[in-house]
Fold this sequence. Notes:
This protein is mainly α and 184 residues long. The chain has helices at residues 2-60, 65-80, 83-106, 109-113, 115-150, 154-160. It is rod-shaped.
Amino acid sequence: MTGLWIIVGIIVLLLIIIASVFNRLVSLKNRTDEAWSDIDVQLKRRHDLIPNLVEMVKGYAKHEKEVFEKVTEARTAAISSKGLAEKTKAENQITSALKSVFAVAENYPDLKANENFLELQREVTDTEDKIQAARRFYNGNVRDLNIAIESFPSNIVAGLFHYQKKDQFELDDVAERQNVEVKF
């Protein structure tokens, strides 16, 4: 009879451990999904600001049509992108296109002094900062989830319930990882 109680005790202990690990994995997955949602919110804000910024600059720089077309194309691609890899690539294209818009604006002193433009520029800069913070938060949650999926004994539970590792939000363009060269 004692042997039976030991076996029942071991089974109950294993079930408690499995339930605990499973709940931790669920928590990590949900935090990772929430972090991705935070990125999405900021990207939506960015997508809403871009048309206003483009229209403002267009009025001053009518002959810079190609720059505005790139921004519009990048925004459209980003809005319609699916999955992390595709969205990452599209958002990196928007970042490059926005740099071009601000470079064009540098050539127009009246535009640079315009209050509406300055406010839009501040909003875009603020949004970019928030996107970076959201990406860091997401990557931290992905790291924690991936560690749990790979670590013993949670890797066994993760395998039983088909948990998959998630990808980090990374730069596609290697050039963006290089140091910025400042010349005077």
